[in-house]
Amino acid sequence: MKAWEANIRKVVPYVPGEQPKDTNIIKLNTNENPYPPSKYVEDAVKATDIEHLRLYPDPTMDHLVSAIAANCGIRKENVFVGVGSDDVIAMCFLTFFNSDKPIFFPDITYSFYDVWADMLKIPYETKALDDNFHMVLEDYQQENGGIIFPNPNAPTGLLEDLSLVEEIVAQNPASIVIVDEAYVDFGGKSALSLIDKYDNLLVVQTFSKSRSMAGMRIGFAMGNSELIQYLNDVKYSFNSYTLNDTAIRFGAAAVKDKEYFQETVEKIVNTREWTKKELQTLGFSFPDSKANFIFATHKTIPAEELFQALRQAKIFVRYFKKPRIDNYLRITIGTQQEMEQFIRFLREYIRQKI
Ligand SMILES: *Cc1c(COP(=O)(O)O)cnc(C)c1O
Questions:
Q1: Do both 226 and 301 map to the same domain?
Q2: How confident is the model at residue 252 (pLDDT cuts 50, 70, 90)?
Q3: How much is the pLDDT for 17?
Q4: What atom of ligand 1 comes closest to residue 154's alpha carbon?
Q5: What pLDDT is attached to residue 354?
Q6: FRET partner for 55 with CA separation of 20 to 30 A, picked from 38, 105, 122, 188?
Q7: Residues 281, 236 share a domain
Q8: Are 267 and 148 in the same domain?
Q9: Ligand 1 binding pocket mutation candidate from 181, 206, 220, 318 (most atoms within 8 A of CB)
Q10: How many domains does the chain have?
C-alpha cells in the first residue's frame, strides 16, 4: 500500500446498465423511453443560439423550475432541480441524512442507494420486502435517520398504495422521507398531493423515463419550501451551475407538451399490458408492474441463460446477479414492434427447449 492510500475515499461504484455502441440492437436494458422527445424540444434545438453558450447558465434555473412548478400545480419555492434524479437524490442524502441512526430502504431496490450511503458514510439498514416483494409497514416504524424508497419500486415494478406511503411519512416526523417516483407516470399515484400536509416529505421525479430525455440529465424534487431551501444551500456549496443552459431550455420546452407526454405514456402502458399477457402464455411470472419495465422469471429456464441467449440475438435486457432476484430479468418496455420481436424470439427459444 502506498503511503497516501490511507487517506483515499474508497468506493465501490454503481454500475450503470450497458450502452452498447452497436445501434442495431433491441435495447431493453436501461428503462429508457423508446419514443423520441417532444417536438417542442426539436423547436427549442432549432431556436438555439450558440452565442449564448458564452455565458454561465442561470444558477436558479428559473425557466425550468417555473415550467415544472406550473405543470405540477405548485410554487417555484417547492421545486429543486438537478442533473438527473441521481444528482437530486445524492444531494438529498448529503443534505438530509446526517444522523448517527441508520437510514432505511428496501433490500430489493434501486442499487444506487447503498452506493451513496457508503460513499457519504451514512449508516443504513435494508428492510426485507415480503415474499410478494411488498414493503412491510412495521419495518419503517423503528427509529431511523431517514427513509428512501422508489414507488413504483425498481426493479420489481410494484406500486405501493399511497396510503402506505402516507403512513410511513406520518409515522416518521423526525425523519425526511424521500419517495423516488422515477416511474410514477406509468401507472402510479404520486405522493405530491401530500407535500403540503407533511413537512418531512420529498418527492423526486425525472425526465429520463416518461419524458424521453435520459441523455439530457434532468431530475427534480418537490417538497415544502424549507426543505427545498436546505437543498439549494447544499447545491450552491457544491456547484452553483449544475444544469447547463441547453438542458434548462430543452427541459422547459418538454414539460409544456402535455399532449405528447400523455400519448407516449399511454402507448408504453398498452404495450406493457400486451407484453404481460404474452409472457404469461410463455410460462413467465412477474409482479404486476406499474412501471415501464417487467421483472419476469421463467418456470423452467434460468434467467441468466435467457439473458445470454437474448444478448446473442442482440436483444439487451438487465440481469442482476443478486440474492432473491438472480432468477429474474428486468425487461424495459420498448415500442410495440420491438416487444413483438422480443416475444417472437422467446417463443422460438422456449419451443426448442421443450
Ligand atoms: C432511473 C432511475 C433514477 C435515476 O434517473 P435519472 O436518469 O438520474 O433521473 C432514479 N431512481 C430510480 C428508481 C430509477 O430507476
A1: no
A2: very high
A3: 87
A4: 13
A5: 74
A6: 38
A7: no
A8: no
A9: 206
A10: 2
